[in-house]
Write a structure and sequence with these properties.
With about 90 residues, this protein is mostly beta strands. It has 1 helix and 5 strands; from the N terminus they run E-H-E-E-E-E. It is globular.
């Protein structure tokens, strides 16, 4: 089940359900969290600082951990092949 409105970045994209379940099974709270992850996307691209907030991919770097902003997410989250949790707040 997705959040009703994307947080802080109106261009955010929802994280696929399988990765939401992965985060919860790894100890991340179901609600009110921000996670920094390392993601591998189909094709071999590695995103070192993928910011996930409450089930939404909101940013591609730590510089957007605070405040409201707009950043285009330049990949399709459904193409994530591997996700590693770096930090959770």
């Amino acid at each position: 089940m997705h959040s009703r409105t994307p947080p802080r970045n109106r261009l955010a994209k929802p994280l696929p359900e399988e990765w939401r379940k992965f985060l919860v099974s790894s100890g991340v709270p179901k609600r009110k969290y921000t996670a920094v992850c390392r993601a591998t996307v189909a094709g071999g691209r590695v995103i070192e600082e993928l910011i996930v907030e409450e089930g939404w991919v909101i940013a591609l770097s730590k510089k957007h951990l605070a405040g409201i902003f707009e950043e285009r997410i330049d990949f399709d989250p459904r193409l994530i092949t591997d996700l590693e949790i770096v930090q959770v707040a």
